[in-house]
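Researcher: We plan to redesign the surface later, but first we want a full-length starting point. Tokens attached.
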């Protein structure tokens, strides 16, 4: 595809000059394409995951297996989005050492960034969902992040995530909003 700046004018929502490989806690929101409710439904203030939602959950929980310098904190799979806290403990990414013909590792990109983690999660989830027979599933191209700058802010984020299903009935993206 040829890049046309009149059509392809996405602007980054990342903080300029911030190194997203820095150790820290990051609050993430990733939405489905057109915010379609495919991951399940909220029943009696609890999320009941669909088969697609179960795949999204499984892939989320496997992130540390693919990125050993990453830990997961609170998260929730909602009908049309995922909220979670990702903790980068070390910005060096040893998983991307690619063996060469001579068995010498060649570093593709030595930094583990938040964007790399999210791209991996979205690609892996989409592949498993497509392989399960849901070929029309897509993610929105961008994701939202917020850097937790204090323990109080991190606690507020955790509360927000935990209380997201009970407040789904108020969400603008809920097609059954009351």
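Model: Full-length starting sequence:
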């Amino acid at each position: 595809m040829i890049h046309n700046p009149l059509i392809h004018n996405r602007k980054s929502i990342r903080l300029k000059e911030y190194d997203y490989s820095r150790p820290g806690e990051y609050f993430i929101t990733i939405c489905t394409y057109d915010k379609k409710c495919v991951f399940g439904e909220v029943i009696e203030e609890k999320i009941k995951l669909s088969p697609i939602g179960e795949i999204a959950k499984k892939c989320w929980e496997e992130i540390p297996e693919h990125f050993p310098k990453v830990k997961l904190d609170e998260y929730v799979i909602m009908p049309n989005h995922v909220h979670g806290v990702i903790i980068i403990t070390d910005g060096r990414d040893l998983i991307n050492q690619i063996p060469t013909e001579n068995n010498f590792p060649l570093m593709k990109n030595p930094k583990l960034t938040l964007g790399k983690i999210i791209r991996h999660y979205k690609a892996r989830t989409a592949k498993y969902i497509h392989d399960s027979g849901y070929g029309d599933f897509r993610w929105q191209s961008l994701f939202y992040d917020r850097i937790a700058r204090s323990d109080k802010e991190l606690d507020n984020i955790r509360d927000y995530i935990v209380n997201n299903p009970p407040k789904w009935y108020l969400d603008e993206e809920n097609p059954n909003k009351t």
